[in-house]
Specification:
Two copies of one chain form a homodimer. Chain A has twelve helices and ten strands. Chain A is of the alpha/beta class and 338 residues long. In chain A, the strands form two sheets. Chain A has an eight-stranded parallel β-sheet with strand order 9-8-7-6-3-2-1-10. The first copy, chain A, has a two-stranded antiparallel sheet with strand order 4-5. The longest helix of chain A is centred in the last third of the chain and has 22 residues. The radius of gyration of chain A is 19 Å and the shape is globular. At the A-B interface, helix 9 and helix 11 of A face helix 9 and helix 11 of B.
Chain lengths: 338, 338
């Protein structure tokens, strides 16, 4: 299986010289607005769009020089951050609208950003297009079909422009259990693995998967006494089983894959990254885990920048070091098969 | 309090440009011989000196390019490794003999390497002299006096050559409890802190302390379910208390300090390093945690070198990243006082 020259060349501009992804995400919109609103104790709709733009500009300015590529959004992030783009730092642009629609049936429906397209991303200088979809293999049939068709549609548009297609899959609890529950922690491995399997099928034309870590380490026996957040939880699996989930995920992913942080604290993320890299991941694309600590200072932009220069850079440097043994993407078995 | 120009200049050659120590230790003798003997299932005295030399040469060759300085011994390590010394990589030479003498009273007595001196280290090109002593504040009086006099003697010799003096303090259980016991884990903070306090006194003329992590993380509640080695243990303190021990150690240390690894696994060491750096440490000087995994391949030197090039370098790169926020040594409060 081979890539077009255009996809190949653009994918190469997202990695370090060895083909490893050490990428910064700053394309958040809804979750960023909520975090800023918490910092000032006001409702999210009172956070002005200019604040999102300024925060994204600051994060990009300080952290981009240490990343191999940055994912941002074309609305708030890219225009104002452009002046800070370092030479040889790749650009990924988000193509989905923020949040999701609660379906009539069971599940979540994603939608595309309005007035945006792969063609426009290409013209704007993007090296890859990213689509985030919420996915649950047990969502109602029409929700699943909607999500699958959305992916296929973006996949085809990307292919027609030789634009690399990065698909981010976010799983969710269908009903009942909250995200920090033993029940959801138990379901997570299967949900992540089955979703990766689904979208590895060739007709989706995905080039790179951005996946959640396939377990919740806070519920793994060895870390269940509050290793990451001080809170004790019952254990639902062992670290050995978690390693096995990672191996299964690597098996399920038919294309190179990177992990996302879902905003966990940095120590937990570094542990996830070690385990993912050990299993065959090609690096990371993460945001909040690196820079969320700066948001508490909003709207003091000087303090935010100072935090980013010290703790933020430190977080990214550690993540980069932990990705030093990631699998170069072109060594993924997909490219080794005749 | 000021340093002589010669000490200042030599200390600077041990760090990165910001004054942080990211140093590799390969001066082990007894413990290295024992590890090699285990790899081939033979008694230690059947490991020839040439094996120590070759293993040290390999480790130095592969890892030194990623370290700001390397500590080796003048007998087995330095002569054969010299050809691999990278430019701008500092050199520390050990001055103690391996192991210790069981005292007639309670405790352990260290001794100096025979036919060796600070003057010889200076001639050989060393940037610092290291002395390891075993110490227990409750050892019998003559043992304590012996250890203290040894330190003072080397301190004076160093001063007379403007040679930086690095003192490594290793604590031990006096009687009864083994090193991996709840009792010793409980004693460790006080033993490390009191020893650092003792040798921070100006008459010892120590420039840099190499200290043990002041707690055993395997016995800290949050990690006690086998986070680092799969073995469950009762909890003897919390992570919050461990942070407090680190702060107390920083308070006790009257000179810049770095931590040693005592051969723990890399994940545990990185966690120790984060906590030490947070408390005010200036970096690390560690060996086994970085390269012990290579010893299992002895006597297959090709396999050892391959392991060092992949996992060994990866371990050191991660440790370097985790030391990125260490306190530059010249910002230690010792140099800020008038």
């Amino acid at each position: 299986m081979q890539l077009s020259a255009g996809k190949w060349r653009r994918l190469k501009s997202l990695t370090d010289e060895q083909g490893r992804f050490k990428m910064l995400a700053v394309d958040q919109r809804g979750s960023l607005r909520r975090a800023l609103s918490q910092a000032v104790n006001r409702p999210p709709n009172q956070i002005p769009p200019e604040a999102l733009t300024e925060v994204k500009r600051l994060i990009t300015k300080v952290l981009a020089p240490h990343a191999t590529a940055v994912l941002t959004d074309p609305e708030y992030g890219y225009p104002a951050s452009l002046e800070h783009w370092p030479p040889r730092c790749g650009l990924l642009l988000a193509s989905e609208g923020t949040s999701y629609e609660r379906a009539k049936g069971k599940g979540r429906r994603s939608r595309l950003l309005e007035n945006w397209s792969v063609e426009k991303a290409q013209r704007a200088g993007a090296d890859a297009v990213k689509l985030l979809i919420y996915y649950h293999p047990e969502a109602s049939r029409d929700v699943r079909l909607h999500q699958q068709q959305l992916v296929q549609c973006v996949g085809e548009e990307c292919a027609s422009f030789d634009m690399p297609f990065l698909l981010e899959i976010v799983i969710y609890p269908l009903e009942g259990s909250g995200p920090d529950s033993a029940e959801f922690a138990r379901q997570k491995p299967e949900l992540v693995i089955r979703s990766a399997q689904e979208f590895s099928q060739p007709h989706y034309r995905v080039d790179l998967l951005k996946l959640e870590f396939p377990a919740d380490l806070k519920w793994a026996r060895e870390f269940s006494q509050g290793a990451f957040d001080g809170k004790e939880r019952p254990s639902v699996y062992t670290l050995k089983e978690v390693r096995d989930f990672c191996a299964q995920l690597n098996e399920a992913s038919g294309v190179p894959w990177v992990i996302l942080s879902a905003g966990v604290d940095i120590e937990e993320f570094l542990m996830q990254l070690d385990l993912a890299v050990e299993a065959g991941s090609s690096g990371f694309l993460c945001g909040r885990t690196l820079w969320k600590g700066s948001l508490a200072y909003y709207p003091n932009y000087d303090k935010m920048e100072e935090w980013l220069h010290t703790q933020g850079v430190y977080n990214l440097l550690r993540a980069n070091a932990h990705a030093a043994r990631a699998l170069p993407w072109f060594e993924h078995r997909k490219f080794l098969q005749k």
